[in-house]
């Protein structure tokens, strides 16, 4: 070891800063935590940037399970491998990685199939533990356990992630960390839903319910596919300036309340129903509306929004039988993280896919509670936080 090199931290616990959710819905608490070394099939990551996704807010608010405290939230990020556990061959110290809540083991029949991104070796679940051994790598300074979130927990300077949840990327092309981190969740989900789940075709009509980052990412995917018309429905049209919506080729329909969707208006605008409807909010009533607004015979409705646990939507059986419409959900936009994230990154580097316009704010990690306020108030799309600032 040269005298200028720091001693290796591999194999030892690391003490670092993390924003801990101690009470559901209350501001996160910046505190010192201990991050244990990675076990077999795991890597410890130094997070470089993390952004805030709507799902962080959804789970932060939940008082009952799957809400749990204390917990380190955060799942949209990018980082550098600090050390790896036993049996890790695909990653090494210094690699740049994007963590993803959805596993991609690359070996099971689902990971090997083109038709699915739902790994069956480590099935996705909203668990507060590491996916393989069901324990935690985080403790507070009193030695008490802190829970994980979506197998990522990026609101910490260091985190431990299973290798099935890590995609190695090559940033040789000079892509900045504060852009690449967006591919970790929301933007990939929206673009993937348009490309993979819906397979939007040229000349078609797309209706998007909810214009947050995911809805706009669906619009971006649909624009690239050559959709003829992209209609966006939102209750707060004032959060956009005209240029912003033009960039995404979105034609806006404003709602005065969520129950007042003018089915008839959408029907007229789309001449009998949209080819594709995307629900990006997570409200059962909106999912029902989206299904009602898509074209009989071939219309597809894609659910991306995360609804409250145990909520149900209602469909009339007669309508399902007679309409021939398709209704499907889409986790991570139907994409396989390990192969599709590098593909999306290349499209961004080729100036084909938009990422820059999603970043409305950049903050220091210590300002994380401001990031929550901005998203909740509908003032931000993506707020990227730098961990070392
Ligand atoms: C969600 C999808 C449903 C479970 C939690 C995570 N995706 C991203 O935010
Ligand atoms: Zn997310």
Automatic annotation (TrEMBL):
<dbReference type="GO" id="GO:0008270">
    <property type="term" value="F:zinc ion binding"/>
</dbReference>
<protein>
    <recommendedName>
        <fullName>alcohol dehydrogenase</fullName>
        <ecNumber>1.1.1.1</ecNumber>
    </recommendedName>
</protein>
<dbReference type="InterPro" id="IPR013154">
    <property type="entry name" value="ADH-like_N"/>
</dbReference>
<dbReference type="Pfam" id="PF00107">
    <property type="entry name" value="ADH_zinc_N"/>
</dbReference>
<dbReference type="GO" id="GO:0004022">
    <property type="term" value="F:alcohol dehydrogenase (NAD+) activity"/>
</dbReference>
<dbReference type="InterPro" id="IPR013149">
    <property type="entry name" value="ADH-like_C"/>
</dbReference>
<dbReference type="GO" id="GO:0046294">
    <property type="term" value="P:formaldehyde catabolic process"/>
</dbReference>
<comment type="similarity">
    <text>Belongs to the zinc-containing alcohol dehydrogenase family. Class-III subfamily.</text>
</comment>
<keyword id="KW-0560">Oxidoreductase</keyword>
<dbReference type="GO" id="GO:0005829">
    <property type="term" value="C:cytosol"/>
</dbReference>
<keyword id="KW-0520">NAD</keyword>
<dbReference type="Pfam" id="PF08240">
    <property type="entry name" value="ADH_N"/>
</dbReference>
<keyword id="KW-0862">Zinc</keyword>
<dbReference type="InterPro" id="IPR002328">
    <property type="entry name" value="ADH_Zn_CS"/>
</dbReference>
<comment type="subunit">
    <text>Homodimer.</text>
</comment>
<feature type="domain" description="Alcohol dehydrogenase-like N-terminal">
    <location>
        <begin position="40"/>
        <end position="169"/>
    </location>
</feature>
<dbReference type="InterPro" id="IPR036291">
    <property type="entry name" value="NAD(P)-bd_dom_sf"/>
</dbReference>
<dbReference type="GO" id="GO:0051903">
    <property type="term" value="F:S-(hydroxymethyl)glutathione dehydrogenase [NAD(P)+] activity"/>
</dbReference>
<feature type="domain" description="Alcohol dehydrogenase-like C-terminal">
    <location>
        <begin position="214"/>
        <end position="345"/>
    </location>
</feature>
<keyword id="KW-0479">Metal-binding</keyword>
<dbReference type="InterPro" id="IPR011032">
    <property type="entry name" value="GroES-like_sf"/>
</dbReference>
